[in-house]
């Protein structure tokens, strides 16, 4: 018999990124079902998922093609060791990933979450340099305000204090380059000009450190967990040139921005730049199952190719690597892009979001409204333009208001943002904007 919410002992669960004590005051949202853009709780209340459930549910909830693909695969083979054995969905997904990413990326290595993909890319770059006899290249350059996940390596190349500070003593040293984050540009300065100025700071760091740097890692176009800070594609172009000049790998972490989120299939397309390693995850299975992949070039792969694994092989594995069910979900997800002109249809939603942006711009407590494709972010500030102290936790008020009005909006600090499923319609976006606006009013009231 199906159990109900009331039967369950909630005290056994420890939720991520959560102060559990707060749930004595605010009960957890008891979600029992999903339908398109809606999450549905045990009382049949419906909430628009404005953030695609941590940015993974690209097509909302319960998308039929993905459900069917999973059901089909379950009846074939649910899992098989990915060393010594392979499986068709894993191969098919790899073929599809290779066909939609920049042409030089021809080799696919699977992992099972975004952080693990980042670990893979860092370790591959590091080992590549060992394998080709350049053992000095052991360090990484990352961006200030960047975020790449929360395992130890991923945290080491991240720079969001909230996640990183406590674990400082466990982390390896990373060289941090000033962020191209255009919120910090001078009045009147264009995104392009500011991004170029910041790229020259990267140039200096590379000039000084390239002998010992294996790779630069960054989130292309949007630093998502770092409060949805955005920058111009010209930065990627310039950093690519610099990495070529100084023989340093370039790792693009497209985990949050890949699969159409920035308006193009991958953010790197907007700069026409190919990284040496590209990490993808989140939307890869349309939000059904955990999966990640790292794509790289053939010549990098060849540097690991030798007579036996312990010689030069890449000794990194996860038990669930290449899981056939997750890969089948990935294949179905990419087929949806192919069969439905998702990117073309998103253009209308992107225009609508731009329209919504206008509604917030004149508000005296809005310091910035920024948009990259299907991401719209609104920066709440004091009337004098100063930032609110994050400890005041004003974003929580927006969140709480949203829940009373049928929307799951989960601000990052003082930043309200929309990262909706691609199946949202214009009326639903308008409703979200109305709820967010009311939430903003509540958040700034003292
Ligand atoms: C850019 C980026 N990289 C890596 C990660 C880590 O992914 P995961 O949470 O699946 O480990 C995230 C998660 O938000 C992310 O936004």
Helices and strands, with pairings:
Blueprint: H1 22-25, E1 31-35, E2 38-41, E3 46-49, H2 52-55, H3 64-74, H4 88-100, E4 105-111, H5 114-131, E5 139-143, H6 152-156, H7 161-164, E6 175-177, H8 191-209, E7 213-218, E8 222-223, E9 229-230, H9 234-246, E10 249-253, E11 277-280, E12 292-297, H10 298-302, H11 309-312, H12 324-340, H13 342-361, E13 366-372, E14 375-380, H14 395-405, E15 407-408, E16 415-418, H15 426-444
Parallel strand pairs: 3-15, 5-6, 5-7, 7-10, 10-11
Antiparallel strand pairs: 1-2, 2-3, 4-12, 8-9, 11-12, 13-14, 14-16
Helix pairs in contact: 3-12, 4-12, 8-9, 13-15, 14-15
The structure holds pyridoxal-5'-phosphate.
Task: Please tell me about this protein's structure.
Helix 14 crosses helix 15. The chain folds into 2 domains: 5-62 and 341-444, Aspartate Aminotransferase, domain 1, CATH 3.90.1150.10; 67-340, Type I PLP-dependent aspartate aminotransferase-like (Major domain) (Aspartate Aminotransferase, domain 2, 3-Layer(aba) Sandwich). The relative contact order is 0.15. The protein contains 15 helices and 16 strands. It is α/β, with parallel strands linked by helices and 446 residues long. It binds pyridoxal-5'-phosphate. Residues 113-115, 118, 147-149, 219, 224-225, 253, 255-256, 281 line the site of pyridoxal-5'-phosphate (PLP).
Keywords:
seven-stranded mixed beta sheet; 446 residues; single chain; 15 helices; Aspartate Aminotransferase, domain 2; binds pyridoxal-5'-phosphate; Aspartate Aminotransferase, domain 1
